[in-house]
Amino acid sequence: MKKILTILVLFFNAVICFAQKKVRLIDKNATAETRALANNLYRLSEKHILFGHQHATEYGHGWRGDEGRSDVKSVTGSHPAVVGVDFSGLSGRPDIEINKEKARLRKIIADTYDRGGIATISWHFSNPASAGGFYWKDSVSAPAVKMIIPGGSHHAAYKSILQTIADLASSIKGSDGKLVPMIFRPYHEFDGWWFWWGKPYCTIDEFKTLWRFTVSYLKDSLGVHNFIYAFSPDNLFTTEAEFLERYPGDKWVDMVGMDNYGDFGRYGKYNVDSGILKLKIVSDYAKRVQKLAAFTETGLESIPNASWWTEILLKALRREKLQLAYVLVWRNDATSPTHYYAPFPGQESEKDFIKFYNDPYTLFENDLKDIYKMKRTK
Known about the structure:
alpha/beta, TIM Barrel, 11 strands
């Protein structure tokens, strides 16, 4: 009898372990905390969505660098669950400035981890082969993708830039001494024309080669094991085939997403049904191949629609049984009176945002518990 009970216990534990492994990260050496984060995001996405805000704790509407502050916290009492930061300052500058930027980012990301929040990293990567910054500028910008992939004229320079990123990623530790997991989202909105890595400036094969080399070099050559790799085009697709046109393959991506401002009110135009269709394409693909999914960027600049949070965004997210780990809105500029995407005290959508915050479907930083520890599922 005792032996039978022991076998049943072992079987039950095996079932629990199997249930936990809903997401298998592409990095087989990913840290325990990174694996736990991925699985917890997947588990939570079955019934909830985390709210994120770009540069939330760095600056906000009319302020910059205030310790412990975010506009979201000023309105709700909680920071966003997901805080967006950017690696834009890690190249194309003097070493002394890059080192200062690394120290600044290290603190922001570690502080987010220590509070129990999550950091997602975008990369507005300044063109490594020409002037023009991260945007494409006619007669100035070089089509750098083919120049930085293996065999290209700037490949060695690109490897050096990735080394800088790896050095930073491998040095960010929480107060518990553990490496901080991060969602790394390079080359976003690649299907558009506005960035130098955009669709008009490189072939499908060149883009896939760039993605695969970047991921492989970071995890296999430079030993970065605390990244979750996110793939996020803009909203310029209507079918799964179009969404996957430049997809490098399931061996190279942990999270699929989409950036979409256009369908959710940009320039006063709404096509929410189209936006939901695209989110469903992302969510359905992720569920089928056991990847994470997210609404990686959206928002309504200046939020002139006082009920946008509950009547537009929340209703869209709750339709079609979407399974999305988080939704992130863009930044609140510190100096512009109009460039903001999250409310601040007194902004006209503040009351509706509090309703959005209080809805059981949405999760903020204060709602997260042990997001970096593996949980047993029943």
